[in-house]
Amino acid sequence: MESKITIFHNPNCGTSRNVLALIRNSGEEPEVIQYLKTPPSTAQLRKLLKALGIRARELLRQKGTPYDEMGLADPKWSDDELIEFMHVHPILINRPIVVTPLGAKLCRPSEAVLDILPSPQRGAFTKEDGQVVVNANGKAV
């Protein structure tokens, strides 16, 4: 059975790992797309941006990317150009992005994913940094 949840995931990112764990804590096994290994096409990026309800610039990641070297802060870049840059340099895509039947969301902070998960949390969850975000009853704290 195909998963009804997709995460655009970077396993080197703590926020992304926490989001993946929260999805699994709801009893779901998502489709995991390691977008640095398998970058989304420009068409997929356009579809994601539409689902997220944001402009391309709002999906750009600055920290740890070639954002500054590429001069991407310059307002001269169109959405189409920024989408192309994200396709060619997927490290520029902010993460994690989660798509569920309830919507799509850039899940920063990680507990933002709770708003779009179709199934409730099945138990307590503590983020890697020690912050408790779900109690033993599966309720957000």
Tally of alpha and pi helices: 3
Shape: elongated
Describe the main β-sheet briefly.
4 strands, mixed
Q: Summarize the amount of helix as a percent range.
A: 10-25%
Order of helices and strands: EHEHHEEEE
Q: Count structural domains.
A: 1
CATH architecture: 3-Layer(aba) Sandwich
What is the average of the pLDDT values? 96
Distance linking N and C termini: 32 Å
Summarize the structure.
The chain has 141 residues and is α+β, with helices and mostly antiparallel strands.
What does this protein look like?
The protein is an alpha+beta fold and 141 residues long. The protein has one domain (6-134): 3-Layer(aba) Sandwich (Glutaredoxin). Helix content is 23%, strand content 15%. The chain has three helices and six strands, in the order βαβααββββ. The protein has helices at residues 14-25, 42-52, 79-88; strands at 6-9, 31-34, 97-100, 103-106, 125-126, 132-134. A four-stranded mixed beta sheet has the order 2-1-3-4, with helices on both faces. Strands 5-6 form a two-stranded antiparallel ribbon.
Main traits of this protein?
141 residues, alpha+beta, Glutaredoxin, four-stranded mixed sheet, two-stranded antiparallel ribbon, 3 helices
Compile the SSE list and pairings.
Blueprint: E1 6-9, H1 14-25, E2 31-34, H2 42-52, H3 79-88, E3 97-100, E4 103-106, E5 125-126, E6 132-134
Parallel strand pairs: 1-2
Antiparallel strand pairs: 1-3, 3-4, 5-6
